[in-house]
Amino acid sequence: MRNNTFSSKWLKVSEVAPYVIHVEIARGPVNAFNNELWHAYGTLFEKLADEGEDVRAVVVSSAFPKIFTAGLDLGDAGNLSQDTNSQSADPARIALNLQKHIKEIQHAIRTPERCPFPVIAAIHGMAVGIGVDLTSACDIRYAASNARFTIKEVDIGIAADVGTLAYLPKITGNMSLVRELAYTADWFSAAEAERLGFVSRVVEGGKDEVLAASLELAKKIASKSPVAVSGTKKLISHARDHSVEENLDYTVIWNSATLQTKDMAESIAANRGKRVGQFGGLLTKSKL
């Protein structure tokens, strides 16, 4: 993969192993998300999905050892507040503009969920506000033991609106604790996040350790059939949002196509031969 095609001012992209991509968020000093960064983040994952040369797993981390993200750039938030409090502005038009703005942020931060490959969040240091939104939209979350989280939005006078309140009740299944953390903006530790069910593993240490564990997981996933992994991701996400009956019906339709894959024969042969399977890329370039 040509890394310079995907890297941008605040997002460093590298292929660290065959089919495995590392995305580092690198807006100094604390990875505060302004309009330019969240837009670039969404665009990056769209490009990886549409133009990446056989991307099979992505790991997202911070470039800074002590912090994942400080959340929303308060400078941007301040500008937005000034616009909404303007005496000359029409409230209806303000509302319509705000709806558009919020939807654009939601769409960008949730882009990993729409990608055909799994996205793993390697979380270390502080993850504030939008850091919970961003990682909630990833498939898997690993946390360093030094990670700390807060749903911070109530402390700036708003309800979290980019994904946390939609995802957390379905990720964790503990509505009481979700409400407590969202109402209070209290910090919770990596260990508490694991007990809550928000992260699937706590890795002792900091950035280097959690990143290494996340990359090993990504390599393991990338060794599997990309057709099987992509289909599994799609069906799990569908199951979250639909009844059992609806998901089973959807699975019938999905697998009636994907069961025709050549990856099945190769997977069986690889298992019997105790070797790593050799699979083609998930997407092919159109000849139209």
SSE map:
Layout: H1 3-6, E1 11-17, E2 20-25, H2 35-51, E3 57-62, E4 67-69, H3 74-84, H4 91-109, H5 111-114, E5 119-123, E6 126-128, H6 130-136, E7 140-144, E8 148-150, H7 164-172, H8 175-184, E9 188-189, H9 190-196, E10 201-203, H10 207-222, H11 226-241, H12 244-258, H13 263-273
Helix pairs in contact: 2-4, 6-7, 11-12
By CATH reckoning, the class of the largest domain would read: Alpha Beta
CATH architecture call of the largest domain = Alpha-Beta Complex
Q: Proportion of β residues?
A: 5-15%
User: Rg from C-alpha positions?
Assistant: 20 Å
The main pleated sheet reads as: 6 strands, mixed
User: How confident is the prediction overall: mean pLDDT?
Assistant: 91
**What is the 3D shape?**
globular
Structural class by secondary-structure content: alpha/beta
